[in-house]
Design a protein that fits this description.
It comes from Apibacter adventoris. By secondary structure, the protein is of the alpha/beta class. The protein has two domains: 87 residues, Rossmann fold (3-Layer(aba) Sandwich), CATH 3.40.50; 134 residues, 3-Layer(aba) Sandwich (Rossmann fold). It is globular. The structure holds the ligand Nc1nc2c(c(=O)[nH]1)N[C@@H](CN(C=O)c1ccc(C(=O)N[C@@H](CCC(=O)O)C(=O)O)cc1)CN2 and magnesium ion. The site of magnesium ion has 5 residues, from loops.
């Protein structure tokens, strides 16, 4: 039976560490860190994620602000909002919650964010620095996974890592981080995607599988090798009127089946998701310290 990589527990520890660090600054009469979130439209999951980001700020002593914009806002209007946030001297960092409505060019919006305030690490300047192993903001989900591997002392050097899904938020940056020098990293990485043939040939040979597909119960025990480490990034809402929220969350991994064979596994919920939230706070703290220390 696999050991659990408990992202919820670890995220609480990290939030506590952040809270204590913030308190030290505030006790020395510095202003608190300030994060802003831009929410366009009212996609149910996005509303929940942004609400949680605002709550997290409160919990660790950050200042937060929410820029709530209508789903029919046009691209230029949204760019104007980004410009205001870029120019706001009292703001350390901000995020634009994704996905954006289809009529808005996501790349154009991300490109407009000041890289120094890009605490999501999505701007090409931060992404390029990450690939070149320079200091930069790391995207919160991959950063959360790296932190989880590190804090649980999961070996990565020379390991075969298979990443499933090449999204800009998770799969592609994950593949880059795992291939970087040092720990956690130094792995031999295969980035698989929808055009990959015979995926099982890769997953069966992997020491670590990181799946970010959004297909519930996709990864079965028969697809992995014994003792593999399994990181499940997928979160799909499945309608179920018997549940309090009207749905339940399912990961990409057939948990009961896979945990029989794996050595370590992340649950959904309570695995990668809470770590994503904690790492956004961490990035904001990094941005803040740069601003405070000049
Ligand atoms: N601008 C961004 N947009 C999006 C990001 C991102 O990092 N930046 N990532 C995802 C969504 N996301 C954060 O925004 C996110 C997703 C899930 C969770 C999480 O805590 N999941 C929980 C369950 C939550 C629930 O009950 O609904 C878990 O897995 O335990 C946090 C953040 C896409 N967009
Ligand atoms: Mg994909």
């Amino acid at each position: 039976m696999a050991n659990i990589l408990d992202g919820l527990k670890l995220s609480k520890q990290i939030k506590q560490e952040i809270k204590e660090e913030v308190a030290q600054y505030v006790n020395k009469s510095f202003r608190p860190p300030h994060l802003s979130a831009v929410l366009v439209g009212n996609n149910g999951a996005s509303v929940t994620y942004v609400d949680n980001k605002i709550k997290d700020c409160h919990a660790v002593g950050f200042r937060s602000s929410l820029v709530k914009l209508p789903g029919n806002i046009n691209e230029n209007e949204l760019l104007q909002e980004i410009k205001k946030l870029n120019e706001d001297k009292d703001l350390d960092g901000f995020i634009v919650q994704l996905p954006l409505p289809d009529h808005i060019d996501q790349e154009k919006i991300i490109m407009a964010i000041d890289p120094e305030k890009d605490v999501d690490g999505f701007h090409p300047q931060n992404f390029g620095k990450m690939a070149l192993e320079m200091e930069s903001f790391l995207p919160a989900t991959p950063y959360g996974i790296m932190t989880m591997l590190k804090r649980y002392n999961v070996p990565t050097q020379g390991k075969n890592v298979v990443v499933i899904g090449r999204s800009r938020i998770v799969g592609r940056p994950m593949s880059i981080l795992m291939s970087r020098k040092g720990y956690p990293g130094d792995a031999t990485v295969t980035l698989t995607h929808s055009k990959t043939q015979n995926l099982q040939d890769f997953t069966k040979n992997a020491d670590i599988v990181i799946t970010a597909l959004g297909v519930p119960n996709f990864l079965k025990g028969s697809m992995i090798k014994k003792g593999a480490v399994i990181i499940d990034v997928g979160i799909t809402r499945i309608d179920d009127s018997t549940k309090e929220r009207g749905f339940y969350l399912a990961g990409d991994v057939d948990y009961n089946d896979v945990s029989e064979k794996a050595s370590w596994i992340t649950p959904v919920p309570g695995g990668v998701g809470p770590m994503t939230r904690a790492m956004l706070l961490k990035n904001t703290l990094i941005a803040y310290k740069k601003n405070i220390n000049g």
